[in-house]
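Students often ask why inverse folding is considered easier than folding. One informal answer: many sequences map to the same fold, so there is more than one right answer. In these notes we will look at a single instance of the problem. The structure comes first.
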């Protein structure tokens, strides 16, 4: 229960006469200061205070309110414990609360000065002197009043913790002292400051005091505002977006309409964060996602960005497969996949060994060069399997411009990354074995310059920051193992060739083909056709015939195709239940594949006048060509047909000049050269032919035509001729000898300077082919013509009889002589002698 006592009207002397002393009950205040005109509720708890209040109410007198100097002081016994100046207040209402405390509403009346206590028990009765409020005027006071009013307004506007009406109230107070006192309402003011304000009796001073207080407060508020706005803008960036996005999500969830674009953006953002990209690239991707979220979903731009980010996300930035570096295991796998190729396998293993020892060593790019179907691509796959890496393949043949390798800029409609990046994505790891097929076909029909882009890809110094036009961010290709393949070495741009370690695969002998057929191709095709060895058997003669009469190639691709043909037919018979087992012999070959397509040997059947057999290397491997010469009446000295290139024409001319210079020894009458025109024709499929290595063949055919002496039908030859009749070395010897052997030649004439290459010729071939090593044209004539012209004297040539062991290679004449020799069969730039040897061993890309 609370009891409210309305106080009766207090005696009408208020404000009390200033200057007079009075004796009044006193309440000591803690932490508050009461000002004249202020109406405030007071919570009074201390017994002394309650009694003082009651006394005042009972007497109908005002009360003295004075603040304690020390707020925590419980009992006040002396006047000195209180401040000197306090307030005379009227009690408007007193409410007795149940806990014995009292709540009073008091209204300040006038300042008073505390003189001393008359009594301090049971409550304080104090002697006080009332202070007169002076009426201040004058210009300065007016100016101060205005300024304080303005300050109050500004204070309120800057966000002071006071009600906004305070500004209006301030405008309406004209009494300067009151205006100053009003500032005491501000919660920003401390008790001490309020007390100081109360004690400042001089109005002029008081205004100055509040003015300085307000000035400070305004400054503080402004500063606070500034700091807050800074903090807020900081938060804007990081959190605002997050909060908004969360809110958006919540709203969408509430509405049950998840925005598909937003969902997609969120998903994309998550994917970007999980893709393991390098930091800058992730930042880049996030930027794109943000951009996407700002574009209306109907805009085509959204699709473009989505595709772009999808590309970034799907690349194997940090997915690396572990290498198997166990060389024994690698060797086993290489043997499992390929027959023979010992030298090649050895070099691959050496290469892997180096890589396993020094991961960081930037090894050159491997390049497998050789005719079709010799297993270049499948070797690449094997290398990948041996190392435990992923395998991808990209054909450079038919690529038209740089953008196919490096991609189109995103500004193009439908732009995509180039094929390098596409393949890396397919691989799914950043260290696949990456096969670049048909490097020799690059630069043949190019609009841009793709080989420069390819250079960047292959250069170990640059490819760790490979730039794709579409991606716009670098991708590290340095872990990729690149293997290039091609049929010929010559057409590969020198700058590219320079970065490659060339490994030649010249082609297989007949025996090797049969082995490959039996051990690899037949089992493979059996499996492909759902057959087993129980269903099919090949006789040995059928295998030989298959290789000789149904295929004509350096590799084994046609062989594989023919085997597949046979399997298809057998599979049908087995499936139809007609046969359970088929033994393939010659008769069956005929039945399945038709009559033999190639005759064994394409050499002349008889010894011919004016015809000689040359050896060439083409894209499909070594081959034999006939060179035909006829002599007819006429004034011209030469007609050359068969699409012969410039080098070949010059070579024919050199041959003819040598013949004219040696007409006597050869038994040719001088007039013959004036009376007759020579027609040299090199048939064979209308394929353009060039290169110097048919030199001795053409010269031989010409001698035969002039002298009427026939040429041995089973002798094939290759070699370049000089004006003085010297025979210079040529390239591609192994391929050429394989071809000679396949066509049934019993002897091959070759330059003595190619002796070092004989080591590569399998014994199996040498058993059937006699090798004649010559230095000069006389020796060629001596061995190739059926009869030697009477007056010709040739130094004996070095002959390796069939099956005879090959001598330790006699040091061949230094290659230097050759380099830079016009028309020499040597590429212009060869870095090292080792490279030179490897190039020389198989080069000879032209006839
Ligand atoms: N030594 C070999 N042992 C087993 N199989 C072989 C051998 N050489 C080639 N092959 C097989 O011959 C087929 C053709 O080989 P591949 O495709 O690798 O030829 P390529 O050299 O890449 O030809 P191209 O120049 O036309 O691309 C493949 O099936 C391959 O497995
Ligand atoms: Mg291939």
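Output (designed amino acids):
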């Amino acid at each position: 229960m609370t009891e409210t006592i309305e106080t009766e009207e207090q005696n009408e002397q208020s404000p009390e006469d200033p200057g007079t002393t009075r004796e009044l009950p006193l309440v000591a205040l803690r932490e508050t200061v009461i000002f004249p005109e202020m109406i405030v509720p007071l919570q009074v708890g201390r017994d002394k205070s309650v009694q003082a209040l009651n006394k005042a109410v009972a007497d109908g007198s005002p009360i003295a309110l004075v603040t304690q100097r020390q707020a925590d002081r419980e009992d006040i016994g002396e006047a000195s414990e209180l401040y000197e100046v306090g307030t005379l207040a009227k009690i408007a209402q007193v409410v007795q609360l149940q806990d014995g405390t009292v709540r009073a509403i008091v209204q300040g009346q006038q300042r008073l000065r505390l003189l001393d206590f008359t009594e301090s028990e049971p409550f304080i009765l104090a002697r006080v002197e009332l202070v007169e409020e002076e009426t201040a005027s004058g210009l300065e006071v007016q100016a101060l009043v205005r300024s304080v009013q303005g300050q109050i307004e500004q204070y309120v506007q800057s966000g002071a913790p006071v009600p906004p009406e305070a500004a209006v109230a301030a405008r309406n107070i004209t009494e300067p002292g009151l205006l100053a006192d009003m500032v005491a309402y501000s919660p920003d003011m401390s008790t001490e400051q309020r007390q100081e304000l109360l004690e400042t009796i001089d109005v002029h001073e008081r205004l100055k005091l509040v003015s300085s207080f307000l000035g400070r407060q305004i400054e503080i508020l402004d500063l606070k505002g500034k700091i807050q706005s800074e903090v807020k803008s900081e938060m804007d960036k990081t959190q605002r977006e997050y909060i908004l996005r969360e809110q958006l999500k919540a709203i969408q969830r509430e509405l049950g309409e998840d925005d598909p674009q937003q969902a997609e953006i969120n998903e994309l953002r998550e994917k970007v964060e999980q893709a393991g990209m390098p930091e800058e690239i992730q930042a880049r991707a996030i930027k794109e996602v943000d951009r996407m979220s700002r574009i209306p979903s109907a805009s085509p731009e959204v699709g473009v960005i989505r595709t772009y980010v999808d590309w970034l996300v799907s690349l194997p930035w940090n997915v690396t497969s572990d290498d198997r570096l166990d060389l024994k295991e690698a060797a086993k796998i290489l043997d499992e996949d390929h027959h023979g190729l010992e030298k090649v396998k050895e070099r691959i293993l050496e290469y892997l060994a180096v890589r396993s020892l020094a991961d960081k060593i930037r090894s050159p790019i491997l390049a497998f060069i050789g005719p079709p179907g010799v297993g270049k691509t499948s070797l690449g796959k094997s290398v990948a399997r041996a190392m435990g890496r992923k395998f991808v393949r990209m054909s450079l043949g038919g690529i038209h411009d740089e953008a196919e390798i490096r991609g189109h800029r995103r500004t193009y409609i439908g732009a995509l990354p180039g094929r390098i990046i596409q393949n890396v994505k397919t691989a799914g790891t950043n260290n696949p074995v990456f096969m670049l097929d048909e490097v020799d076909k690059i630069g043949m029909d190019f609009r841009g310059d793709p080989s420069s882009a390819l250079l960047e890809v292959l250069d170990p110094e640059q490819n760790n920051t490979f730039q794709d036009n579409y991606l716009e961010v670098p991708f590290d290709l340095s872990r990729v193992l690149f293997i290039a393949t091609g049929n010929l070495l010559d057409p590969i741009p020198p700058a590219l060739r320079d970065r490659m370690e060339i490994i030649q695969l010249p082609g297989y002998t007949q025996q090797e083909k049969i082995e490959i057929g039996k051990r690899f191709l037949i089992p493979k095709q059996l499996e492909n056709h759902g057959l087993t060895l129980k269903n099919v058997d090949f006789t040995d003669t059928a295998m030989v015939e298959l290789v000789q009469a149904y295929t004509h190639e350096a590799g084994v691709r046609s062989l594989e195709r023919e085997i597949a043909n046979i399997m298809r037919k057998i599979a049908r018979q087995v499936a139809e239940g007609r046969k359970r087992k088929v033994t393939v012999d010659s008769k069956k070959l005929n039945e399945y594949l038709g009559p033999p397509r190639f005759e064994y040997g394409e050499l002349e059947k008889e010894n011919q006048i004016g015809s000689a057999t040359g050896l060439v290397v083409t894209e499909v491997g070594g081959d034999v060509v006939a060179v035909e010469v006829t002599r007819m009446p006429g004034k011209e000295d030469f007609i050359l047909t068969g699409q012969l290139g410039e080098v070949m024409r010059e070579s024919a001319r050199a041959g003819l000049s040598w013949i004219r210079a040696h007409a006597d020894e050869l038994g040719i009458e001088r007039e013959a050269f004036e009376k007759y025109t020579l027609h040299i024709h090199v048939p064979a499929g209308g394929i353009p032919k060039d290169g110097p290595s048919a030199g001795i063949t053409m010269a031989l055919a010409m001698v035969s035509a002039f002298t009427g002496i026939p040429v041995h039908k089973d002798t094939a030859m290759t070699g370049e001729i000089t004006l003085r009749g010297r025979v210079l070395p040529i390239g591609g010897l192994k391929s050429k000898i394989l071809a000679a052997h396949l066509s049934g030649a019993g002897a091959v004439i070759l330059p003595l300077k190619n002796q070092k290459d004989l080591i590569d010729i399998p014994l199996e071939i040498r058993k059937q082919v006699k090798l004649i090593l010559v230095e000069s044209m006389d020796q060629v004539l001596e061995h190739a013509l059926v009869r030697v012209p009477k007056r010709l004297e040739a130094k004996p040539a070095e002959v390796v009889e069939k099956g005879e062991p090959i001598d330790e290679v006699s040091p061949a004449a230094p290659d230097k002589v050759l380099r830079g020799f016009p028309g020499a069969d040597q590429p212009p730039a060869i870095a090292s002698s080792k490279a030179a040897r490897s190039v020389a061993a198989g080069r000879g890309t032209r006839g």
